[in-house]
């Protein structure tokens, strides 16, 4: 379980996060949604330690990540998998080498063990046959799958996905969402996804947190998303629906 408590972050005199709290549970795919510039990525970066919050706590199964010493921070980091926007694959490495990379960096497993584990993860994301290919030879959806395989190769307790659907067509997006949700359930991972994608919100949002100007204005599950009495949320959903309809015309 991940708990965030009263996270605040300002850049200069601009307050980006104005005290955000919430809980993310194992086996749940939790979404953070909100308009552009509302602080979603900054919140995610505070959670994974790329940005230090000015105030607040991030607890990983009760362990305070913000105040942790180097040793504990490293221990918690090893339990995280991250799927970055744009997949962030190494162009000069094969698909299998990309997936193997965290094992090369962070473990003392033998080469045979690393290859076995990387192949297992590739199979799990439906790419068992693609290990020898180069990233330039595969589609955007396949690249996301490779990114997911790499994010789970260390068997993470916590998985973070930043806009996993960016640049994908609607059908591929749904497949990627379903894969993230299935893996979360199967391995009981605590998964946090940042998304703009209306389909994702309706399909996989077991728990949704809506950010607006650095504050959490609403949270709930996707069945309640379209029935809130929060004007900012309704406006956000309406704008996204319009966008979706325009894209499908
Ligand atoms: N390192 C930084 N230094 C200064 N300002 C920053 C920094 N990182 C983010 N910001 C500002 O914080 C605000 C929130 O950014 P953030 O990337 O979290 O938005 P977002 O909700 O993820 O938006 P989007 O959906 O467009 O990615 C933006 O105005 C951004 O310019």
Total strand count, please? 10
CATH topology of the largest domain: the name is Rossmann fold
Radius of gyration: 18 Å
State the helical fraction.
25-40%
Query: What's the helix-strand series?
Result: EEEHEEHEHHHEHEHEEH
Give the name of the CATH architecture of the largest domain. 3-Layer(aba) Sandwich
- Give the uncertain stretches in residue-range form: none
End-to-end separation in angstroms reads 41 Å
Q: Could you write a compact summary of the structure shown?
A:
With 249 residues, the protein is an alpha/beta fold. It has helices at residues 40-48, 70-77, 95-106, 111-124, 140-152, 170-186, 198-204, 231-248; strands at residues 2-11, 14-24, 29-33, 55-60, 63-64, 80-83, 158-162, 190-194, 207-212, 215-220. The mean pLDDT is 92.
Structure description:
The chain is α/β, with parallel strands linked by helices. The chain folds into two domains: 2-79 and 156-248, P-loop containing nucleotide triphosphate hydrolases (Rossmann fold); 89-155, no CATH class. It contains eight helices and ten strands. The protein has helices spanning 40-48, 70-77, 95-106, 111-124, 140-152, 170-186, 198-204, 231-248; strands at 2-11, 14-24, 29-33, 55-60, 63-64, 80-83, 158-162, 190-194, 207-212, 215-220. Strands 6-7-8-3-9-10 form a six-stranded mixed beta sheet. Helix 6 links the parallel strand 7 and strand 8. Helix 5 runs parallel beside helix 6. The model has no long low-confidence stretch (mean pLDDT 92). The structure holds adenosine-5'-triphosphate. This is ABC transporter ATP-binding protein. Residues 2-238 form the ABC transporter domain. Pfam families: ABC_tran (PF00005).
């Amino acid at each position: 379980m991940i708990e965030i408590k009263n996270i605040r972050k300002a850049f200069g005199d601009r307050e980006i996060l104005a005290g955000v709290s919430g809980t993310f549970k194992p086996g749940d795919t939790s979404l953070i949604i909100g308009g552009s510039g509302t602080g979603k990525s900054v919140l995610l970066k505070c959670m994974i330690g790329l940005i230090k919050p000015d105030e607040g706590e991030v607890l990983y199964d009760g362990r305070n990540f913000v105040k942790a010493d180097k040793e504990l921070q490293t221990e918690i980091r090893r339990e995280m998998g991250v799927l970055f926007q744009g997949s962030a694959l190494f162009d000069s490495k094969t698909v299998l080498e990309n997936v193997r990379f965290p094992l090369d960096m962070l473990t003392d497993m033998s080469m045979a063990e690393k290859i076995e584990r990387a192949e297992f993860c590739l199979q799990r994301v439906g790419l068992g046959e693609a290990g020898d290919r180069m990233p330039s030879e595969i589609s955007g959806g396949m690249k996301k799958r490779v990114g997911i395989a790499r994010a789970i190769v260390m068997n993470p307790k916590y998985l973070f996905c930043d806009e996993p659907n960016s640049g994908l067509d609607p059908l591929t997006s749904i497949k990627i969402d379903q894969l993230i949700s299935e893996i979360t359930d199967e391995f009981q991972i605590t998964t946090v996804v940042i998304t703009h994608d209306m389909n994702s919100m309706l399909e996989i949002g077991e728990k949704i947190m809506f950010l607006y100007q650095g504050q959490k204005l609403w949270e709930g599950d996707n069945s309640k998303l379209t029935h809130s009495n929060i004007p900012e949320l309704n406006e956000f959903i309406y704008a996204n629906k319009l966008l979706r309809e325009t894209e499908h015309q």
